[in-house]
Amino acid sequence: MQADGSIGVTGTPGTGKKSVSRILAHELGLKPSSLNDLADGLRLVDRRSGEVDTAALRTRISRLRDKGGTVYFGHLLPYVLAPEALTKVVVLRCEPDVLKERLTERGYPAGKLIDNVEAELIGLVSSDAFAAYGDTKTLELDTTHTSPKEAALNIAKVLRGETRAQQRIDWTVNYDSGAKLRLLLSTGK
């Protein structure tokens, strides 16, 4: 199925953006495009800090002529792609305990790990995506217990109108005590 226009996929690191987006692009007959790879290819990544010049990336992306549709993916999506560039935006979400395990397995340093777990807990990327693209264009998908293929197929079904998007996700209700929060936001070191 060829989708009309371009789709955005975003989320906290570790939620499955890269894997899900590539499968989704194939499923929809679109091309995948990593925002991190674009930034790197355009030499907009500071080699010392690893920070992306989002203002420059936003300007460079706005000059691209997207023919045939693209699945753009990356956690920087709400900061670099204008609302009119995308027909739908999907925010991938993952239960913070599981995300912590994923990022630990990837070898994230303690500070970066906790920053990302906390960002997922409070829905930072989701909140920024909804603010940038609005409630009608943005949806969330829980990837905690789904494979990338299952997640991509679920997204495709929503985009085709075969099923409805799930309600907004609020992880904070699962962490209703100081003890649970301290355990989640510690590295045990």
Secondary structure blueprint with pairings:
Blueprint: E1 7-11, H1 17-28, E2 31-34, H2 35-41, H3 54-63, E3 70-73, H4 77-80, E4 88-93, H5 96-105, H6 110-122, H7 124-133, E5 138-142, H8 148-160, H9 178-184
Parallel strand pairs: 1-3, 1-4, 2-3, 4-5
Helix pairs in contact: 1-8, 5-6
Distance between the termini: 49 Å
CATH superfamily: P-loop containing nucleotide triphosphate hydrolases
Helicity range: 40-55%
Structural class by sheet pairing and helices: alpha/beta
Largest sheet: 5 strands, parallel
Strand content: 5-15%
Number of domains: 1
- The parts where pLDDT drops under 50 for at least 5 residues are none
Q: How many H/I helical runs?
A: 9
Q: Outline, from the CA principal axes?
A: globular
User: How is the CATH topology named?
Assistant: Rossmann fold
Order of helices and strands: EHEHHEHEHHHEHH
What strand line-up does the widest sheet have? 2-3-1-4-5
Round the Cα radius of gyration to an integer and report it: 16 Å
CATH architecture: 3-Layer(aba) Sandwich
User: Please, what is the average pLDDT?
Assistant: 91
Written overview of the protein:
The protein is α/β, with parallel strands linked by helices. It has a single domain (7-184), classed as P-loop containing nucleotide triphosphate hydrolases (Rossmann fold), CATH 3.40.50. 46% of the residues lie in helices and 13% in strands. It has helices spanning 17-28, 35-41, 54-63, 77-80, 96-105, 110-122, 124-133, 148-160, 178-184; strands spanning 7-11, 31-34, 70-73, 88-93, 138-142. It has a five-stranded parallel β-sheet with strand order 2-3-1-4-5, with helices on both faces. The mean pLDDT is 91.
